[in-house]
Amino acid sequence: MPASSELIGTKLGRYTLIDHLATGGMAEIFLARQESLGKFRRDLVLKVLQTRWEEYPEVVDMFLEEARISALMRHPNIVDVFDVAAEGGRHYIVMEYIAGRTLAELAKRAIQVTKSISIEVGAYIAAEMASALAYMYDGQGGMGEPFRVIHRDVSPTNILISTAGQVKLIDFGIARQGNITPDSRARPGKFTYMSPEQVKNEAMDGRSDIFCLGTILYEITLGRRLWRGTREAAMKRIVDERPRPPTFIRRDYPTELELIVLRALEKKPEDRYQSAAELHNDLQGFLMRSRAHLRSHFHMADYVAKIFSEEAEALISDAGRRRAQEFVDNTEVLESDQTDLDFDAERAAGPGAALARALRASALGVWAEPAPPAEEPAARAEAAKVEEAPAAEPAATPAGAPDQAAAVRDEAAEAPADGPVGTPSSTKPAHGPDKPGTGAEAKETAEADQLPRRWGPMLVAAIVLLAVVGALWWLRGQ
Ligand SMILES: Nc1ncnc2c1ncn2[C@@H]1O[C@H](COP(=O)(O)OP(=O)(O)OP(=O)(O)O)[C@@H](O)[C@H]1O
Ligand SMILES: [Mg+2]
Prior knowledge:
By secondary structure, the protein is α+β, with helices and mostly antiparallel strands. The protein contains 21 helices and 11 strands. The protein folds into 2 domains: about 5-95, Phosphorylase Kinase, domain 1 (2-Layer Sandwich), CATH 3.30.200; about 100-370 and about 405-440, Transferase(Phosphotransferase), domain 1, CATH 1.10.510.
C-alpha cells in the first residue's frame, strides 16, 4: 500500500480519500467523501486495513468480525458502521465521521488547563459510556437475544467526543460476541486499561469492560494515571494492587463518586457492578444529586470548546504541560507540581481570570450547592491560599460543619494507602449492598458533620443549668 499521504485524492470504491486522520495498530484512518446524484455529498471515515496484514487470513477475518459486530450496534454512544468492502486487495470499513477529539486529547488538554477533566464532565462521559456498554452486552436491538458483545479495548483513544458534545465508543477491533474463554492468540487491548481477568487471560464477560471504564473515570477525574510503570509492573498492579481511594489524592473528591469508581474497580468481577446499566444509573444519580450543570451534549460541546479555546491556552503553565505529558507517558506524578498547577490561585486577577474561574468552578465545584453570592469573594480569596481544590470546599460541606468534615478528610489523606480508612475492597455505593467498613466510614464522616449541631443545644443546656444552680446558691445565701 502506498504511503497514506499518496492515497489522498484517490478513490476506494465510491469514496474519495480527502485526508489522513490517524494510524492505528491495524489500520489507517481516512476522512473520505461520498458524492452522488444532484449535490449529494457526505463525509465519512474509511478504516483501511494496513497492507502488511492483508496476507494474514486470520487478521482479515478479525477485521471482518470487527465490521460484523459494529454493524449490529445502533446506539447514540456507539459509532455507526455502514459497510465493509475490499478493492484492489484492500479491505476497508465505512463508518460515520465523528468530528471532534479523542478522550485522550481532551484529558491531556484539561490537565494542562485545570489539572483534570471536571468532575461533572468526567462523570457525564462515563455515564454515556456505561450506556453504550449496557447496550452492547445486555441490549438486543429488537433481535430477541442479548448481543453479549465485549469490547475489550475500552480506552481513551477509543472514545471520541464530537464537537456537538456526543460521546462515542469506536474501534471494535478486538471485540468478541458471546462467552470469551481463555485464548492465548487473542490480541490484547491497551495494557494499562485492561481488567484483571483480561491480564490473567481468564474467562471474561461484560464486567471486564466495566473495570476498564472504572480505570478511565478514575484517571480523568483525578488527572493522573492509575496503573503506572512498565508493562509488567502495570499488569501486576492491575491484578494485585488496590487503587488509592480518590479522596486520598484529592480531598474534595465527592464521596458518592468515589464509591462508584471503587466499585467499578473491584478486582473480582462478582464484587463489581454486575451490569453497566447499574453503573449508568449510579452516575446519573450522582450527577442529579450534585446538581451538576452538565446534563446534555450541548453543555459537553461548550466545555470542549472552552477547554480548547485560545483563552484557555493562555492559562497553561509549564507545570501544567509537564503534568499532562506525565499523564500521556504514564510516568510518576510529582506532588509538588499540584501547587504550581493551581492556576486559579495564580490568576486570581488579570486577563483570563474570569474564564479560569469558570473552568475551575466547573472543574471542582459542580457537585456542591452554589455558594451564596455574598460569600463568593471570600471563597475565592480562600482559593488563592489553600493548595488543593479549595474553592469547592466551603460549599461542598454542610452548613456549619466545614472544619470537622475537612479534618476527617485530612486524616484520611494522611493515612497509608492500605490503611483502614476507606479500604477500597470494602467499598460500595451508598445505596448498593454494603460491606463492612464502607458504611462505617460514611457514618463516621456523617457523624463528624453533625458534631457542631449537637454541641449547640448542649452548650445552651449547660449555661441554663449553671444559671439555675447559681440562682439556687444565691437564694440559699439570703
Ligand atoms: N469514525 C471516526 N471518526 C473520527 N475519527 C476516527 C474515527 N474512527 C477512528 N478515528 C481516529 O482514528 C484513531 C484510530 O482508530 P481505531 O482505534 O479504530 O484504529 P485501530 O487501528 O484499531 O487503532 P488501535 O489498534 O491503535 O486502537 C482513533 O483514535 C481516532 O483518533
Ligand atoms: Mg483504537
